[in-house]
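hiii, so i know i said id send this last week but things got crazy w the move. better late than never?? heres the sequnce for the chain we talked about at the cafe, plus the structure i predicted for it. fair warning i was half asleep when i ran it
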Amino acid sequence: MPLHLEPIDVLDELEDSRSVLIVSCPVCPPVSLAMQRGSPWIDVLRHGVKTEAFEQHIEALRQSLEERGIRAEVLTMYVPSPMMCVFTSGQRRRLRKRANGYDTVVVMGCDSALVSVQRALAGTECRAVLAMKLTGLTNALATFELPLTINLEENALVGDGASVTTIDPAERVGA
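okay and structure toks below
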């Protein structure tokens, strides 16, 4: 049950930062952006286990920060738990160590991912900024295409548990 997340513009909130570490959850955000853009979730031969739509979004954010004179790098941790909402204590320590020297950590994930980052950064001067908003739950049919591509079909956004909105392919971002 991936959460459905939509990117939010945080550039104005980052204007006073000199350096930003963008941390991303490799589960819900990539699924959400693949659905929103109508692109493959996973295309192993072209992008490995990364989702092209999500990687493009992160790179665009990184470039926008660099254009504003803000040093920006990206970090995604997969092992042992890929989901930021259930990081291990070791992953929190690694995040804290990697965030050393940055003013701000931008969180590409849900509110729970933000809490994981805030806990990892407790006692430091580094602040955490959430760059996605929760809009519901994702429902999709994963389809496999040869050679090694996973697409998301029959995309739907489940709202309050009673409402289901089908995502119209013609209304997708970047379509």
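btw The radius of gyration is 16 Å. thought thatd interest u
miss u guys!!
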